[in-house]
Write a structure and sequence with these properties.
The protein has about 220 residues and is an alpha+beta fold. It has a domain at about 75-180: GMP Synthetase, Chain A, domain 3. Helix content is about 35%, strand content about 25%. The protein has a 6-stranded mixed β-sheet with strand order 2-1-3-4-5-6, with helices on both faces. A hairpin with a 2-residue loop joins strand 3 (about 105-115) and strand 4 (about 115-125). The protein starts with 5 loop residues before the first helix and ends in a 25-residue tail after the last helix.
């Protein structure tokens, strides 16, 4: 099966046809939206502040307090940490992001490791945390436990930097396998689509933003 990520499995759940064109046929490219570009700029500003001590651009000054608080947390800091996990007969094993055997890929915005405890932060630029989904934190935690076997606890959070909301979740090493297991039903459906070659289109409120313009459900905004 093609390597998956939290975002790619969400794309499949949203619309298998969209997933097919973006991830399988690769005959369509998603150029992103204004909101996507804005989010990328915020992520870059946060990364450069933590990693390089670079001043945050004035237009993003509202994230300074959040970043300063995170920077004060003691430990080894990793920004935009790329993780790859292989699935083996014995369970899960660390691998590189683009390895031939990679099964899951994920990028952690900020990881702070202090002994057997880690903080895992994912920056969000949505206006509020109304639609927060902590399953993303589950996947990253599983990847971190795989790559850093000394870890016993991971304090994870979705940091909504605009509304200053933190959605927190604690992960423990004893449950590390269960964090990937929560995605198994969706992965089974994805594998079924790959085997059958059937990628049904799903109509929804986001069809106007979809880059697959050949779809029967596509409509102009």
């Amino acid at each position: 099966m093609t390597a998956w990520s939290y975002s790619s499995i969400n794309t499949f759940k949203q619309c298998p046809k969209k997933y097919y064109h973006l991830k399988v046929a690769r005959d369509v490219k998603d150029k992103g939206s204004v909101a996507t570009v804005y989010g990328q700029e915020v992520h870059t500003a946060a990364e450069e502040f933590i990693r390089d001590r670079k001043e945050v651009p004035k237009k993003f000054a509202f994230i300074n307090n959040v970043l300063e608080a995170l920077d004060k947390i003691e430990g080894e800091k990793h920004c935009e940490l790329k993780l790859g996990v292989a699935k083996t007969e014995d369970g899960y094993a660390p691998t590189t992001f683009f390895a031939d055997d990679v099964w899951w890929r994920g990028v952690a915005d900020l990881v702070i490791i202090n002994g057997d405890i880690a903080h895992s932060i994912d920056y969000k630029t949505s206006k509020n945390a109304k639609y927060a989904d902590t399953k993303q934190l589950d996947a990253v935690a599983a990847g971190l436990f795989t790559h850093f076997p000394q870890l016993k606890v991971i304090k994870s959070a979705l940091a909504f930097v605009v509304s200053k909301e933190f959605i927190q979740k604690e992960h423990v090493v004893e449950k590390k396998d269960s964090y990937f297991a929560t995605f198994e039903p969706d992965l089974e459906r994805l594998e079924g689509a790959q085997e059958s070659g059937v990628w049904n289109a799903i109509s929804g409120p986001l069809c106007g933003w979809c880059p697959v313009t050949s779809c029967e459900h596509h409509r102009k905004r």
